[in-house]
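Fold sample X.
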Amino acid sequence: MDSGFGKIIVVADGPTCTGFRLAGVQEVYPAEGKDAERKIDELMGVEDAGVIITSEKIMDALDWRLKKKLDHAAKPVIIVVPDKNGPMEQKDSLASQVKKALGFELMK
């Protein structure tokens, strides 16, 4: 699935990937732990990657260097969603994640 901004890619646990696959996302990578970290790092270098969706659990476990790289990247936009167990704790809302990535609010 191409968002017009680039491909939408999911790196998450199996059930989360299945949900996104059912929603029409074609590029999904079921992975956890270090495998997920390697995949996200690899995808940071993919030119047509527009959005990478991952779980809170995976994002929480990433190496600090990769987190810093993700924080400073304009593209791809990283969207963090709860996994099958629900939200870990109150994190930034999706709207604030998009504002941080794009530099402006989409809706008011």
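Fold sample Y, listed below.
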Amino acid sequence: MNSFPRHIHFGSEDNVIEDHVLEENVSPEGNFRRFMEWVRGLLRN
């Protein structure tokens, strides 16, 4: 799988996409903010 190990189950366990949201060198708090911004963008569309 091209997205291993960084991936997101998007909508269902079977729909796996590459994780372009989280970064390895960012604090957990920073990644949480990045994730929430990503979710906010999804909800706006």
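Sample Y note: The first helix runs from residue 28 to 44.
Also: The longest strand covers residues 7-9.
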